[in-house]
Amino acid sequence: MNDSRPTNVRYMVLAALSAAAAIAYVQRPLMGAAATVVRVEHRFTLTQMGVLLSSWLWSYAALQIPAGRLADLWGARRSLALYCAVWSLATMVIPFASSFALMCLLGFVFGAAQAGIFPCAAIVVRQWFPPQSRGFATGCVAAFQQVGGGLAAILGGFWVAAYLGLWQPEWMAAEKVPVPVLPAWLVTLSEDSSGIVRRLFHWSGMFVWFSLPGLIWSVWFLLWYRDNPDDHPAMNDGERALLPRDLSPKSAVGEGPVAAPTREDNVWWAMLTSRTMWLISAQQFFRGFSYIFYVTWFPTYLKNARGLPVEKSGMITGLMFLAALLGALLGGGISDGILARTGSRRIAKQGMAFVSLVGAALFLASSYLVSSVAAAVTVLFIGSFMAALAGPIGYSVTIDISGRQTATVFGGMNMAGNIGAALFPIVVPYLLNVPERLGLSFSGWDLVLFVFAGTYFAAAACWILLNPNGTIFDDARDL
Asked: How many other CB atoms are found less than 10 A from the CB of residue 296?
């Protein structure tokens, strides 16, 4: 083999991470897509539905640091394969739960397993990509989150519409849910299949089918991936020379540190006392609080506030994920390009994140001013795009400031984001009642959007104060 021409194993690794992110995000919005059906058929209250929609987010948030710490000690290969298998199994069985408590428990297990995906991804990106390419790498992973979320929104919306159209449950009239207009081919198949197609499109079926890719990926990743890049049999010396060498190959993830103890070994104290850590976590809290709207309540908003039928709300929700996909892909690449030209992390990271988040807030707030559905969807699309530009910047900065404790620090940052995400679905039902209770001139859904936009302003304020240079250990207080 000619070792002078580098192999491209690192890009295969990035493709594997991107696939895992897509699989994770395919499964996350399923309960949101089926929310109306689940709530009515299980006789859950609106408040119970909010708790169920956020049940996985609490364990996802709480276990970010433990999952990251396990990945730092055990390695991404075994950790990520296990996490993906567990969350896929939880997805498969949740529609068959017999009670609200059991559904919430399975949601908790789902979230606990998914807590490890991005701390593991952070380790992999740090080991396989140098700092000047990490914006691109994290942008790809973030983009494929949106691929998965968009597919789930579109296919989930179609699946629920097919269920309502083929089964036409009695509660639809009481809930004022119109019978969806189904494609002629689907109606014909249903009539000619002795009920097989009708049973296939029961709402619970999408949870089963959408869980299978995760189980397949888990087995493949366990067999193919290597924690230490130098150990991968498909890599040559040309590619090894391109890999970052800020960590000794012998101290790769899963093998333990070999160097003498340093201040970086006291990661817990640094995470508690570093101003940079608090600010990167705060911006993630606010971004997570706002982003989760698309995954949970957005289809209901389109139906109740904009009067859209379920099949169209699924398509439009998919458009929001498309906007986030484009933003994530461009955000990481643009930031890397600015860094290469200017050499300034403040311009490339801090400045770009601030501008994109302020833009997102302004566009989302402006949706209140438009009455047509098309105009509202347009400004929401642009707002989603602008917000997504900041995502890979936050991820790459977190990797850069983490020193050798990548997964643990990344888990702490992501935990803050998911505490925010867990709060939003529960807050929405209360926000919906505030304008009527106070006699305000705008609707509850308008208030939800105002809060949605305001949190992006708060995230932008965090970036003004954040220093993207150095590590959290540089500004941590001395013991």
From this structure: 24
Q: What Cα–Cα distance (Å) separates residue 429 from each residue in 51, 380, 426, 445?
A: 10, 21, 7, 10
Radius of gyration of the chain (CA): 23
What is the pTM assigned to this prediction? 0.72
Per the CB < 8 A criterion, the answer to whether 252 and 227 are in contact is yes
Q: Which domain holds residue 126?
A: 9-228+263-465
Give the rounded percent of residues in the chain with a pLDDT score beyond 70: 94
Give the number of domains in the chain: 1
List C-alpha distances in Å: 88 to 8, 170, 418: 29, 31, 20
Distance, CA of 363 to CA of 162 (rounded, Å):
33
- Tracing tokens 């540089």 back to the chain, one arrives at 474
| Helices marked H in 350-443 | 352-366, 373-389, 391-400, 406-438
Convert the pLDDT of each residue in 115-152 to its tens digit.
888 889 888 988 888 877 888 888 888 888 878 877 88
Q: Helix, strand, coil shares of the chain as percentages rounded to 5?
A: 75, 0, 25
> How far apart, in whole angstroms, are the C-alpha atoms of residue 96 and residue 342?
55
Residue 366 lies in a domain: yes
CA 7 to chain centre: 30
Distance between CA atoms of 207 and 30, rounded to whole angstroms? 7
Type and span of the H or E element at 190? helix 184-192
CATH number at residue 82: 1.20.1250.20
